[in-house]
């Protein structure tokens, strides 16, 4: 047996296998995941694994390597989060999110740091050797809400979209703040004396790290979109570019000490729209599927490793310090959310309710990022205490808060996510209001959200689309796309029910959206009108659709079924023209 | 800038990016890939890259690490090859393939080894210090036809299926022989004296290495199939298991010094059927797409690295030895194919023609496997000569043979692959003949190919399917599946042409396959009958189909559209029953 030779890939594969099998195991019993969040179960599996390793080897099991975490496990999760980020609620609440992420995190860091320093002054606790700077350093790593933990819990409890994006957006964007504060305090710890200049330089760094991350991400995102313009002949490597460019943006940002998380989110959000239009439908399915799969595996591995790393002799159990850490984490977060929300609510009509505030404060879960950062600390004699405190905070938030948040959401009757997708009528109205508000803002000279959105949209259609999309001269109306999708779905349903060719199209579907291909005057008959239409009108609509749909589709989007590899478009077009002519005769 | 920190993943990503961009670049000019095989262009890119690195650093660029090749780059290609292997022609020609792979490779190894030893005796060449054993060792690594190189060239020239599977199957299965001979000679080189026992042990090893690989592969393949029985609730990690289990089979086989290539092929071929039935349609698309993508990237990287590694000072240019190596490789392969085919043709009705023999001999391309093996040689003073000879042989076969094989195929008018898929009528007849021949073989007591296939099929449906498939009590008729697929495709076409609900189903499609859901008496009306049917009969058929198709589909296969994540089957079923009832009223 030559185990040495294959050790590295073999063990990696086995760990991934363990993670996947654990996931299957939980889902075999349907009741389990609905009571306990998966993250808790995975940590539990990790604890058992760690116990076994500890028992067999009689030494501490290997802790999760910080490099492995930051370079290999975290990026897939953040990429998935950024790519599937609902951009509308995100940009609508960007101000609030940034306030929570920047001011809130700073508030927590200093709050926790200073109060723990106060605890250290109590002689009975024997902690007087922990300096203020070390407490602040510890505060900077323990204050950060963890996107992986938040995602794992919030994806299961289905709170309303705004609440979800507030907590989740904060957990993603506070990375820039955490990175800066953590590095700042760490360098202060090693400096003999701290000058005022250094502190100002630290403040300036916030902007460099955050905005730099956004810039790096956008550059890579645009390059990715541009690259996919040229992949028409080799569809099979299209998904690769999505992954390669986002990963490069993360690594590049990390290389320049910028925020990798912010970079990868900017990259994913920036390229999504263009890449989706350029690549084939199958490629897109693969991208989506693989992203979900990868992030799900990373996520699982992180929680299992968290459990494994908890076992061992890395800890110094000074209970007063640990307990007060947990308490301060809770108190300062609650206070921070209350104060910040007070200011936010003064400037918004659509306020954040008291219940929502409670869930935001309660949903501040800590996770693997804290854990990796604490192991990256420079060696000093109280490092094991910090490790112990971090472990307890993570386990407390994931187990206690993670398990109780679902009953609390039920108990408080927090507004849930609406299950159904918005109707076409709603979509039209929302878009109409957007244009209206942009116009109002333009006339009144108020440069608000809608004004900028409109300008961006103009810039996008005027310049970006021409450069980044393969076929840019098309009507990109989402309604046309929706109609086609519905018709296709309906056709498949009919085919599977064996009804094709007999029944007329299901009236509600045809009535659902009715549009003339004439793009200037899009006539929409809302769903609510359905009942008032008689069959003559319906037939008339069908006639118009049948005659005109070809024209729409010919100038249709790049990612329809006809650009799949191996199919030649001209032939398809010719065939359809023939079908239509034949029918008309 | 902290480059050290991100170096490893950054450089890996950049190499993959270079490979992908090179691929895009070639395909931008449509004429280039049709004249020169992609592998040549990639090696050329590699040569340029190597030249640049050499020029900048003034030292040899890093050679391709053999471990990286065997552990990370080769498995995806072999997995792809095994998964998409057309199993029918493979098993029909398994005897011939094994003869070429085992006897042919041994023939080549000893032929090339002994004749090169003869060359070494010529005093003028100054090669007298190269022993017979070293020549045989060199022969064992240079004789092996390379699956990566063969696949790269043969996928582009579209020769007939039998010819393709003969060359490609040989290149895959000779791995077991090459591994054994290479390790045998290498251990002989280090032994002070060779006993007769050792030689017999070597012969015995053939069977252990080959059959052991098959066994390991099948065990992992069956486990993979069994695992996918339980992934119904977490579709998103289904594709992962396909990759994890096949990779584990490869690594496990390598660990026990068995043939990893044979193992991964056995695993992929074994699990394919069951996994496909268990996993969702989207998962399957992802599996297929990712496999193709991964193998395509690996393939590209291998050829680029081949080029990069060629540049440098690792070579000893003894031209007589190198030239004779190329000549002997050609001669012995041609002789081997001639002699072996002579015997094969005596036992087969469907003989291998002279043209085919020429292409088989000419298509014996060498590639990265030789290259990695020559670098793995133990250090001895003539290693650089072997490296130079291997490099020249690879470049000669890939560039000269690879570029000229397409014109030769055209010139000789070698039978091409038929472009169209077999009709349903053909499929029925083939299956009917299979059963007939199995019956004849059973009665006559001749245990041939059909007899074993029939037994295997019985064993499969009696035991394996019950264990490995989630829903095994279904009619697995491929005709039902095909009909559904055609109807669905037709429905989508109609929907896209805007004709849904107006036109009756296109007659040729409906007439194409007509089957009663009554599984015992499947009535097939062949495509050729289409014209003789009048519209009344057609309508009658449509009636029967519409009434009966629901029943088929309810007990349909696990991987139809209705088992996608997020869709609840009972609701769908209820809805369809409603539609059908409504229609009947």
TrEMBL record, chains A, B:
Localisation per UniProt entry: Basolateral cell membrane
Transmembrane segments: 12-29, 35-56, 68-85, 97-120, 132-153, 165-185, 206-227, 247-268, 289-307, 319-347, 359-380, 386-409
Family matches, as Gene3D superfamilies: 6.10.140.1330, 6.10.250.1040, 6.10.250.2020
Gene Ontology MF terms: potassium:proton antiporter activity; sodium:proton antiporter activity
Annotated membrane topology: Multi-pass membrane protein
Cation/H+ exchanger transmembrane domain mapped to chain residues: 17-409
InterPro entries tied to this protein: Cation/H_exchanger_CPA1 (IPR018422), Cation/H_exchanger_TM (IPR006153), NaH_exchanger (IPR004709), NHE-1-like (IPR001970), NHE_CaM-bd (IPR032103)
This protein's UniProt keywords: Antiport, Cell membrane, Glycoprotein, Ion transport, Membrane, Phosphoprotein, Sodium, Sodium transport, Transmembrane, Transmembrane helix, Transport
Chain ranges of the Sodium/hydrogen exchanger regulatory region domain: 536-585
One of the Pfam families matching this protein, by short name: Na_H_Exchanger
Family stated for the protein in its record: Belongs to the monovalent cation:proton antiporter 1 (CPA1) transporter (TC 2.A.36) family.
Name under which the protein is recorded: Sodium/hydrogen exchanger
Organism: Jacana jacana
């Amino acid at each position: 047996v030559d185990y040495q030779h294959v050790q590295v890939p073999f063990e990696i594969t086995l760990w991934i296998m363990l993670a996947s099998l654990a996931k299957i195991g939980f889902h075999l019993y349907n009741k389990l995941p609905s009571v306990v969040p998966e993250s808790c179960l995975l940590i539990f599996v990790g604890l058992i694994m760690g116990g076994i390793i500890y028992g067999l080897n009689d030494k501490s099991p290997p802790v999760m390597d910080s490099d492995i975490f930051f370079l290999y496990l975290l990026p897939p999760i953040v990429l998935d989060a950024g790519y599937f980020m609902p951009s509308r609620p995100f940009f609508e609440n960007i101000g609030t999110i940034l306030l929570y992420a920047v001011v809130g995190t700073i508030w927590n860091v200093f709050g926790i740091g200073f109060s723990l320093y106060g605890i250290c002054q109590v002689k009975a606790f024997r902690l007087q050797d922990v300096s203020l700077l070390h407490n602040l350093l510890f505060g900077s790593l323990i204050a950060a809400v963890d996107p992986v933990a938040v995602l794992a819990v919030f994806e299961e409890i289905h709170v309303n979209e705004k609440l979800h994006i507030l907590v989740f957006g904060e957990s993603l964007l506070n990375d820039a703040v955490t990175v800066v504060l953590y590095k700042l305090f760490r360098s202060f710890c090693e400096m003999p004396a701290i000058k005022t200049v250094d502190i100002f330089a630290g403040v300036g760094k916030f902007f460099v790290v955050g905005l730099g991350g956004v810039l790096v991400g956008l550059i890579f995102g645009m390059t990715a979109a541009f690259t996919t313009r040229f992949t028409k002949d080799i569809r099979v490597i299209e998904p690769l570019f999505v992954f390669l460019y986002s990963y490069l943006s993360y690594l590049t940002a990390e290389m320049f000490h910028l925020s990798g998380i912010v970079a990868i989110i900017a990259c994913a959000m920036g390229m999504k729209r263009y890449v989706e239009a350029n690549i084939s439908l199958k490629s897109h399915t693969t991208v989506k599927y693989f992203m979900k799969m990868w992030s799900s595996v990373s996520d699982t591995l992180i929680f299992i490793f968290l459990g494994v790393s908890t076992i061992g002799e890395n800890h110094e159990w000074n209970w007063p310090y640990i307990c007060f850490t947990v308490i301060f984490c809770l108190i300062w977060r609650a206070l921070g959310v209350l104060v910040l929300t007070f200011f936010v609510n003064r400037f918004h009509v659509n306020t954040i309710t008291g219940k929502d505030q409670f869930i935001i404060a309660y949903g501040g879960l800590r996770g693997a990022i804290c854990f990796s950062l604490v192991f990256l600390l420079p060696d000093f004699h109280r490092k094991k205490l910090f490790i112990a405190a971090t472990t307890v905070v993570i386990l407390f938030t994931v187990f206690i808060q993670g398990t109780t948040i679902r009953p609390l959401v039920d108990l408080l009757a927090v507004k849930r996510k609406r299950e159904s997708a918005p109707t076409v009528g709603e979509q039209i109205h929302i878009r109409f209001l957007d244009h209206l508000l942009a116009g109002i803002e333009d006339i009144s000279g108020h440069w608000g959200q809608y004004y900028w959105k409109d300008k961006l949209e103009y810039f996008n259609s005027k310049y970006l689309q021409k450069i980044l999309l393969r076929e840019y001269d098309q009507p990109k109306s989402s309604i046309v796309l929706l109609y086609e999708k519905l018709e296709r779905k309906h056709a498949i349903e009919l085919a599977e029910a064996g009804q094709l060719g007999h029944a007329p199209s299901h009236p509600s579907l045809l009535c659902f959206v009715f549009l003339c291909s004439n793009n200037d005057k899009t006539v929409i008959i809302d769903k609510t009108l359905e009942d008032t239409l008689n069959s003559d009108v319906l037939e008339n609509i069908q006639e118009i659709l049948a005659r005109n749909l070809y024209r729409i589709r010919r100038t249709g989007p790049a990612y329809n079924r006809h650009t799949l590899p191996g199919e030649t478009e001209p032939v398809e077009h010719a065939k359809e023209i023939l079908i239509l002519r034949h029918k008309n005769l």
